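User: Just a sanity check before I run the rest of the batch. Below are the structure tokens for the first item. I only need the designed sequence back.
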């Protein structure tokens, strides 16, 4: 009987193996997070470290091969984290480039990036492509699962609303691929 590893190598089967990232100790991650947040959002007069941020910092200590879904209340910093803080930290720590895309613009992307980084899922539209209805968010989430790409998402929707919008299959994939951080409370926008 042949060795299974040899058969796997010869068969061309894609081995799905998640990539684990760690930005450092808890104290280092918290410091980097706060410093980065203040750098990328100059509109903040007095930075307030919200409870939700602690869950993001703990994820930074050890991603455990999972991405991040930041969902919930508006105006709590989800998009600042996704579009500014995380790209800055990934570039500084790992020399990796994150290219966040607004969910409403996903249908314009011609090829899948190395990391799936989508802001504001639930605000996208199903596009009609030569008679075929295409949901780009579903396609990108499936790509993340199929190729074990890091998946980073934000949404103002609740978990139930995400499930209702995209269906059980996509919701299940998101939960498998991401640590979920729920943002609650009043908007901090002034």
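Assistant: Here's the designed sequence for the first item:
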């Amino acid at each position: 009987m042949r060795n299974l590893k040899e058969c796997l190598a010869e068969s061309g089967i894609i081995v799905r193996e998640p990539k684990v990232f760690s930005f450092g100790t808890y104290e280092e991650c918290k410091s980097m997070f706060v410093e980065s947040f203040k750098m990328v959002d100059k509109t903040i007069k007095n930075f307030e470290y919200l409870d939700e941020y602690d869950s993001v910092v703990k994820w930074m200590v050890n991603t455990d091969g999972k991405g991040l879904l930041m969902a919930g209340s508006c105006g709590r910093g989800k998009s600042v984290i996704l579009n500014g803080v995380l790209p800055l930290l990934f570039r500084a720590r790992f020399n990796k480039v994150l290219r966040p895309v607004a969910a409403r613009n996903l249908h314009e992307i011609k090829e899948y990036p190395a990391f799936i980084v989508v802001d504001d899922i639930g605000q996208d539209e199903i596009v009609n492509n030569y008679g075929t209805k295409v949901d780009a968010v579903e396609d990108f989430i499936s790509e993340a699962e199929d190729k074990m790409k890091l998946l980073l998402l934000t949404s103002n929707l609740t978990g139930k609303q995400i499930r209702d919008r995209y269906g059980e299959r996509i919701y299940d994939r998101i939960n498998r691929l991401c640590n979920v951080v729920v943002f609650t409370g009043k908007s901090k926008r002034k």
